[in-house]
Amino acid sequence: MLLVRKCPRQRRYGKPRFASVTTVSATEETLEEHRTQFTELGLAEAFERVIAVVVQPGVEFNHDSVREYKPSEAEALASWVSSRAPLVFEAHSSDYQREQAYRELLHDGFAILKVGPAVTFALREAIFALATIEADLIEDKQSHVRETVERVMLDSPANWKNHYHGNPEEQRLLRIYSYSDRIRYYWQRPLYMPPLNA
Questions:
Q1: Could you tell me the CA-to-CA distances from 20 to 9, 125, 178, 192 in Å, in that order?
Q2: What is the 3-class SS of 147-174, one letter each residue?
Q3: Do domains 2-114 and 118-197 have the same CATH topology?
Q4: For 2-114, which CATH superfamily applies?
Q5: Can you tell me the distance from the alpha carbon of 171 to that of 163, in angstroms, rounded to the nearest whole number?
Q6: pLDDT per residue over 37-82, tens digit each?
Q7: Residues of the chain with pLDDT under 50
Q8: Is the pTM of this model over 0.90?
């Protein structure tokens, strides 16, 4: 069972800034709030099965950049969790970190790493690379997966419209290449199955 404590992103000049590291006091407050709520609901025993708290260790990403993990910034959190085994942290927005950073995060008690967009970004890169090879080598019966993705995203913009701003060309590039990878919400749609299985 996970308990969630997220730091809100701050906005400056219309662009999201990276969130700050969750404080120890905020983490303790989250645990206490949840312990109280569980107890009030008669679920105190269930609270004992909590294994992790979601925190922000100072890693984050936006459309085109990544804030790398700096262990010194999360030193207080790492020290705090080290004496509270079996409790660990889930590192919020830990996508796109370098291999060494993942080792450091694990060492510092961030045992659960949230990397969904990075994984689906890699999937999109692989699918589009195969589509490029297909276009170069196959004259007929192409999947047209890139065109299909673009058409479906334009026809159903709910999963990207509030995230990708700018003129139409900037939005097109973000739909394809943003680290936020909002395209991930479209892969399961039935329209993709024929192109992906072609």
A1: 8, 30, 22, 38
A2: HHHHHHHHHCHHHCCCCCCCCHHHHHHH
A3: no
A4: Aldolase class I (3.20.20.70)
A5: 9
A6: 999 999 999 999 999 999 999 999 999 999 999 999 999 999 999 9
A7: 6-14
A8: no
Query: What whole-number distance in Å separates Cα of residue 188 and Cα of residue 194?
Result: 12
Element at 61 (helix H, strand E) = strand 60-61
- Tokens 């207080």, located at residue: 76
Locate tokens 């085994």: which residue? 85
CATH superfamily for 118-197 is putative tagatose 6-phosphate kinase domain like (1.10.400.20)
The values of phi and psi at residue 56, to 5°, are: -105, 110
Domain boundaries, the chain: 2-114, 118-197
